[in-house]
Structures are given as structure tokens and as C-alpha cells.
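Notes from the pairing session

We agreed to fold both candidates in a single pass and log them together. This is the raw record for the first candidate, unedited. Please don't reformat it; downstream parsing expects exactly this layout.

Candidate A
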Amino acid sequence: MVFETYYFFKEHIFRIELMFDYLAPIYDLSLKIGNRYSATPVLKNVEFESGDEVLDIGGGTGYLGDLMKKEFNLEYVVLDSNKKMLSKSKQKNIDTMILGNALNLPFKDQSFDMILCVDALHHFMEKTRALEEMKRVLKDRGKIVILDLYPYLFLTKIISWIERRAGEESEFLTPSEISRRLGLETDSFKVNHFQFLLKAKK
């Protein structure tokens, strides 16, 4: 049973990596087209302090980080599990790029002032563990910011079906469920017809 679980996990990760390998060349273009659904909600609703150390989990090509760095004086770290996606961030104004997994963050406790997880949480296999890891590496009085789709929408169900067909996890959580699993003081609100933004304070 243990070996079956291990090989299922490896196969699952391989299929996700393969999907993002194909997406990497066009990922930035898709974000530019849908900019108001990715970067804009964060830029408009999140307050940064000068010099904040920010971790962008599932930051992919560094598109969001590049925009953040133009607007704010930040120490910006992008962590992603896909090599091809991450290689694109080398062309951008990102301080540090790390190939890693959200379920086992390669950082000491209380390393960051802000953690961003934009359109990424639903991809993680073990969401509770990922949220616990975010909380672990967050400094006292730091903030976690999560942007994702409302799970009950027809659009979300279509996206989830497509991603599952590609071998992905694709499970969307409600803001209240994220809040419950984090166990932190949270505030969430609707940023458009499809997405919510959740802020959690440690």
C-alpha cells in the first residue's frame, strides 16, 4: 500500500510537471491577457512595507513578482516546482528563484513578512500541509495572501474538469475552509465575479 501511494504520487507530480512544461512558453502571454484576474487584485488590495521579504509560492514565470518589484521596494522570492516555468523568471527583476515544493518549503521558520499564493493553492495535492508550511515560514505579524476562484461557480467546475483531465489535483477551497485550515485571523472578499482574495494575519 505504501509503495502504491508513493508511485501514485510520483506519477501525479510527473503529469502536472508535464502540463506546465507545455504551458511555460505561453504562460506570461496568458497572464497579460488576463491581467485583471491575476496581478490587479493583488496590486489594488495588498499593502506592502518597504523592504518586505515576500515569498511567492507557485510564482511560475515570475510575472507577478516583476510587477510587484516595479511598484514596491521588496525582497522577492519566487518558488515553483516546474523548471521550465521558473527559468522564465530569470529574465525578470526577481531577487531569488527557487525550485521547490509548497509541501516542504526550504526555508527556516519565520523567514518572510508576506506570502503570496496567487491562483496556485488549488494545484497542491495536500492543501492543509501547504497552508501549515506557509504559516511556519511566516514571521510574527506577517500576512498570507491567497487569490483563487470560488469553487461553486460553473466556470470553476469547467477549469477543474480540464485540469483533472490533464492529471492535476485541481480542488478549489472556499475562503471559510482556507481560514479553518490555517487557524489564523482572516479577512476575505470578492474581487470580481469569479475570484476572492483572502488575507490572513499571524
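Candidate B (folded immediately after A)
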Amino acid sequence: MFIGKRRGAQPPKKPKEPSESPPITSSSTPSSSDHSTARGEGGGTTDKVLQSTPPEYKRTFRSKSKSPWKEKDRKSNSKDRNTNSKDRNTNSKDNNGNTKKKTYTPPHRLKQKQIKESPGKSEEELSILAKRQARFATPPTPSKHEHGFVSRGESYLQNNEEAQQELFSEIIADFINYCNSNSTSVLQKEFNKVVTENDMKSAESVEKDTTTPQKITIDSILLQTRKLREALLYSTPNEFCKRVFFFSLRIAAIVGDFRTYIPSILYLLENREELQLSTDEIEEVATLLILHHIHKTEEISKAVRLYFEYIPKKSMIFDMIRSWIDDDWYRWFRIYELQSDSSMTSMMAMGLTRMIKLFIDQFNQTYYTIAKSELERLLPSGIKVDDLIEKYGADWKLKDDMVIIRERRAIRSQ
């Protein structure tokens, strides 16, 4: 019977030869007494111990001495520091042969220095550099009429009533100039409601600042009004505060800036007794707040509570609330059409998109075709069938004077 080599068997390992290093004996290893004698007698015994020990054990007895590779790294680092200091302190000679000390330039300024010293720039690069310098240059000093926000630490306007009067006169003058230059705007139509006779008289005494002419916009007017409103918050409510906050409210309501008209409304309602608001003024302020809660935030419960608290006898507002709750687009469109006040029209316009989409959904479910004139008669003025298709996503088609809302399915013949 032949016994072959087993598949995958490993060859037998050779036994390890004994190490050539001499065995460690008590005479070769240093004891604690040897170390103590070495420290006390000046190190003579330490040299004998190191000579008698094998090389692989000598490293443990030299642990207190400096490592050779660490010493090499320390020397290389010191060389680098010396070369850097030499580079910074080296002197250069100018064209006249005079020695000139070379100054050290930090890394974050080195690129700017290279850009300034690099010759032969093109006109395009020079223009880019000029624009960059102008952008990061210090802003011009503000004029004497500019004030900061009280909420950001500016207290001059808060403690100076004369400056408050002057700033409000400037705001009125800017608003008059804006309306004169934009005669087609809605604010021009509501000019007499926003600006009173007293405001006109105060605006006439304002001196025009021709040194720093700036373009007047609605945003700039509202920004200046906000500075004045913040300055008046900590003062006692008076007639001047009433004029400022009503002016701010009426402009912001027309343009739909809720960040301005909401603080003005809350201030006027909270201080209505100190400001001695009339019934019509309270009705105006409360109506705008109710319209905001209906069409902007859709908080119907708040709108209903405010209605019964301030204007329970104004049936038109109650009908508007009901039409919004019932999704009654027809009644809501009729109320929207009857509005003659631009501020109320602007507030209701926030909910126009929702009502038009309800209008489209109802016609999608009930009609196949309808006359274009009949459909536009139901819509608010200024809105056409083309607007429903392009702006509000109505999937309708126009064919002559008819609007195809849904295609009729063809009847299959048996």
C-alpha cells in the first residue's frame, strides 16, 4: 500500500536555533543599586554597565538622554527658522546702490502686493480692480438728516422731538415728490387720504438736500417711516404719533406691505383711548386687520373675534367672512367689485388667487362649453379668460367666441 503525500500538507517547520545573544544574568543587568551609585559617584559605574550589556538592551538605559532622530528634527527646524528670519531681514539695494531693508509681508497681503506691483495690466483688469476697490471702500459720510434704528442702538431720534418733527416733514416731502413723478400709481389716487393739510404745510418748510440726491422709492419711504415709528414707541401717545402711524398704515396697506401695516395697526388699537380715535378711525383700522387675517394668514377665528369686538354692525365685512368660509366665489367677487377704497381692494387681492381657482374647479365639474362673454361677466373687472389659462392654470381652449372647458366623449356605434 502506497502512502502518498497528503494534498495541501505543509512541510515540517525547522526548529528555531538558539539566539547568539548571551543570556541575561544578574551580573549583566543593572540593578537599582547600580543606578544609585551611578548618580551619586559621577557616572563611572554607568559606563561599565552600558559596556557589559548587549546592544538591544542599551536603549532602555539611555531613555533620559536626547533621542538622535529628535535631535535631528530639532536642528532642521531651527535651520528653517534661521533661514526664514534671514530672508525677512536681508537687505536689498535700490537703483542708487543704497541698501534698503526688506520688510516682511504677511501671507494674506502678499497677493494684493503682487497685484499692485505687477506691471502691464490690461484695461479690463484695471477696471475690475477699480470696481473692487470702490466696493470695499469706506461708505460716504451720512447727511445730517439720516438717522438710525432705535432697535439697533440709535437713541438720538428717540430723545429729540424736534428731530422727529423734521424727519416726518422730510418723509411727507419725499412722498409728494414720488406721487408727482408717478402719476399713474394707486398712491396718487389716494393722495388726499394719505396726506392731510397739516402734513402739506409741514412739507413745504423742508429744505431740499441737493448735495446727496437719492432716488425716492416706496421702500425708502417705508424705511424712514419705520425709523420714526421705533423712536415713538417709548414716548407718550399724542397727536403727532397718531399722524405718523396712520400715514404708515395707509401707505403700507395700499402697497400690501404687512411688515409695516401690522405694527401700525396694533399700536393704534392698543392706544386708541390715549390717541382719542374716532369711531370711523377704529372701524378703518379694525377692518384692515380683519382682512389681513382672512386673506393673508387665513385665521378665520381671529377675524370673527375682531369683527364682533370692533365692528359688529358692518354687514359687508360679515358677508365677506361668510363667503370665504363657504367658498362662495360669486358673493366674494361681488364684494370685491364694490370696493372703492384702494387699501381694502389691495388687502382683498391677497385672496383673489384662491377664489379664482375655486371658480375654475366649479366650471370644470359643471360645464363642457360656455360663451366667452358670459364667463368674463362673472369674473372681476380686469380679469379675462386668457388670464385664467395663462396665469391660473385653467386647461381650457378657445374656439371663436366659445370656451371649451371639457371635450365630449364620442359615442361608440353598436
